[in-house]
Amino acid sequence: MSSVVLYTIISLSGLGIAAALMLFLAAQKFKVYEDPRIDQVEHELPASNCGGCGFPGCRNFAEALIKAEDFEGLHCPVGGNETMNKIAELLGKTAVTQDPKVAVLRCNGACEFRPMVNKYDGTKTCSIAAALYGGETGCEYGCLGYGDCVEVCKFDALYMDADTGLPVVIDKNCTACGACVKECPKNLFELRKRYKKDRKIYVACMNEDKGGPAKKSCSVACIGCTKCVKVCTFDAIIMNNNLAFIDSELCRLCRKCAPECPTNSIIEIGFPPKKEKVVDDNTGQTTTALENQTNEENNKLNNIPEN
Amino acid sequence: MLKTFLKGGVHPPENKLSNKSKIKDLPVPQIVRVPVLQHLGSPAKPVVEPGNQVKAGQLIAKNEGYVSSNIHSPVSGKIAKIDDFIDSSGYKRKAIAINTEGDEWLEKIDRSKDHINEFSFSPEEIINKILEAGIVGLGGATFPSHVKLNIPRGKKAEYLIVNGVECEPYLTADHALMLEHGEELITGIKLLKKALKVDKALIGIENNKPDAIKHISALVKNTDGIDVYALKIKYPQGGEKQLIKALLNREVPSGELPVDVGVVAFNVGTTFAVYEAVQKNKPLFERIVTVTGKSVKNPSNFRVRIGTPVSALLEAAGGLPENTGKIIDGGPMMGKALNDLNVPVTKGCSGILVLPENESLRKEIQPCIRCSKCISVCPMGLEPYLLMGLSQHNLVDRLETGKVLDCIECGSCSYICPSNRPLLDYIRSGKAEVSKIIRITKQ
Question: Is B54 part of any domain?
Fold first, then answer.
């Protein structure tokens, strides 16, 4: 009886040792060397796997960082400069600093400004609706309002405003990963430079129609009057296809353009109300100038042919 | 036993309300807007300037690239402007607006009603005339016909199939054409046979048009190499691949073209346009459009100039009914709702269908109950419920292996689904995504 137990123990442990030996040899033979720094770098990254850097996930980005000669074009928008500096220190390279960015919606066509001209009855997603037609309002460039961008945002930085029917960016949550930029079928999101106190000034419109039709379909549409271009002292405003665009890299937030816009399509966010003093200094001048402008503006608007 | 295709298919109510209506000429409208993109492929390039005088049939936009098509002025008058205008795509696209003055056609066009049977053109001459006339597939796909007629080297066409199926409910444009222009149609078939250098032509007509079958059969009695087949009523038999399967029992493999199995197929409307282009020198600038719907006063078939606003067609059929929910460009299965009544009629518009509000609205979407009805009706043998799910989750690689690109967008799955799931909507979006990725990787 005892001999049976003994044989069993011996044969089983022999088998175990043999198998362990084989496994050890196989592990030696097929060993894959992995740079230990990948784990270190990955640890520094935010692990959100959002794809904002252009790589499928944080680990792939870490591998790319280790392979890269320099950090040109490699940036983690979520971690920002702080993370990139840490990683650069770890790898003994120099980080390329980038200004932090934030997503903005370039459409202000809330329900009150954009009258509905038809009713959509199909599947309520932006991608399907955009493949079918221009949308429920006369503006085929504007927001459809079915919230594909909200679905795709991993940082809870977007929500749909029930009153306006437009998505709203929560600045403090936005990491500028660019998921919404890719998702929007109308290309309404733009990553703009993030200024102090989240101040923003931008043209909230993508309508490339001529003035008449644009104004007809949406009362806050950019009509391409070029008034903002003329007043800008930093050459930050570009006019293209009847649409103004403020380059956030060149803009110095002087706020001269916004009051010029006849349709209020230039939006200012996060600024204190204009100081009394500034207005007092040039009261006489400003008023006359404004009057002249309104006349000019009316003439211009009247001249625009209605289609 | 009537011929038909084997896989899938549905039989929606036919509702061919206008099948007794003769083709009426619609008055030439005051202003026409002719989109420069009315076909598959690249848009045509305008060759006229605002202010130019044009005659009906004059070239106003020239084809750009091989897969493109010429566009001719449908009316005589003055070019008003070249501007963006909303078309049936639902977006503003470049269109040429012409103010009508009289109705003067180019001298070379034979306006008589006489039927010219004899011809002595070489295949190249016929194809060239078709290219010049800007003929595209009038069944709805609007694929330029000259591309189909130029058989790639190493391949050979054995059969010409003429598609008189008209399987979409409501539509009767092809039916009316077969009844009224049968002789011209036969000459068109002879021309296409010559161009393709084939001996045999088959005409497929669904069995719900017995008068057309009788009429065309009588006409081809003494003609060699043209046969008429009555087909069992089943949607989507008018699909090219389904019709080839039904008539010849040949299956077009996935990703290949009908010419790979020795077949080239044309719609009867296209065949008639070929006759007019070759024998009468008349470019494609008018087509037959069915205006129909249960609430429409006089459902009828009209001969309409390209660029006529849809509102003019509705006016001619007795005005827009009061309780209209949707106006559809095409038939109820594959057509697309219009969002503007000023949308111009294009080469691919076979019908305008008015649906009352209670019929047009979508029903509430319910969860999938895995009944697999969509699989059994899919004429391409796909799994629509699965493709929809994959598309919702953007699993592009699995969509591709699931053969999403084989989908012919017939809508049988959405029609049959007891849970009212928008299967085709998602499949179409997935299909677009897959073809986009294929296009990018090819570059």
Answer: no
Chain A positions touching B360 (Cβ under 8 A) are: 121
The CATH classification of domain A36-91, taken from the options 3.30.450.20, 2.40.10.120, 1.10.15.40, 1.10.3720.10: 1.10.15.40
The ipTM, to two decimals, is 0.87
| Average pLDDT, integer, range B395-416 | 95
Nearest to A140 among B91, B426, B429 (CB): B91
pLDDT at A307 over 60: no
pTM for this prediction? 0.86
Q: How many domains does chain B have?
A: 2
In a domain, B28, yes or no: no
Q: Taking CB atoms and an 8 Å cut-off, how many pairs form between chains A and B?
A: 43
Give per-residue pLDDT as tens, B350-363: 999 999 998 888 99
Give the residue carrying structure tokens 């039709």: A213
d(CA B225, CA B219): 13
The number of helices, as runs of H, and strands, as runs of E, in chain A is 12, 8
User: What values do phi and psi take at A274, rounded to 5?
Assistant: -60, 140
Q: Which residue of A has its CA nearest to B336?
A: A132
Mean pLDDT of A267-284: 63
Can you give the residue range of the structural domain that contains B412? 373-442
The neighbour count for residue B43, using CB atoms within 10 Å, is 19
Enumerate the residues of chain A whose CB falls inside 8 A of the CB of residue B92.
134, 140, 209
| Residue A68 confidence (pLDDT) | 87
The alpha-carbon gap from B389 to the nearest alpha carbon of chain A, in Å, equals 14
CA distance A113 to chain B (A): 20
pLDDT value at A297 more than 70: no
B273 and B381 co-located in one domain: no
Mean pLDDT taken over chain B: 93
Using a CB-CB cut-off of 8 Å, the residues of chain B touching A144 are: none
**Residue linked to tokens 């619609």:** B26
What pLDDT is recorded for position A99? 87
Quote the CA–CA distance of A91 and A71 in Å, as a whole number. Answer: 11
DSSP β-bridge partners for residue B98: B32, B79
* Numbered ranges of CATH 3.30.70.20 in chain A: 101-272
Please count the residues of chain A: 307
Confidence at A275, pLDDT banded by 50, 70, 90: low
B128 and B252 housed in the same domain:
yes
In this prediction, residue B352 carries a pLDDT of 95
Q: Does A307 touch chain B (CB under 8 A)?
A: yes
| Cα-trace Rg, chain B | 21
So what's the pLDDT on residue B164? 94
The gap between the terminal CA atoms of chain A, to the nearest Å, is 105
Q: Does A24 touch chain B (CB under 8 A)?
A: no
Same domain, B261 and B147: yes
Rounded Cα–Cα distance for residues A287 and B367 (Å)? 63
Interface of A with B in 244-303 (CB under 8 A): none
* Subunit contact A121:B432, Cβ cutoff 8 A: no
Of A125, A133, A209, the CB nearest to B339: A133
A118/B339 CB distance under 8 A: yes
Assign domain A101-272 to a CATH class: alpha beta
| Boundary residue ending a domain (B279, B307, B327) | B279
Q: Are B137 and B270 part of one and the same domain?
A: yes
The token pair at A138 is 């006369």
* In-domain check, residue B71: no
Give the end of a domain, one of B263, B279, B295.
B279
Q: Is position B253 within any domain?
A: yes
CB contact under 8 A, A121 and B361: yes
Q: What CATH number does residue B150 fall under?
A: 3.40.50.11540
* Average pLDDT score, chain A: 86
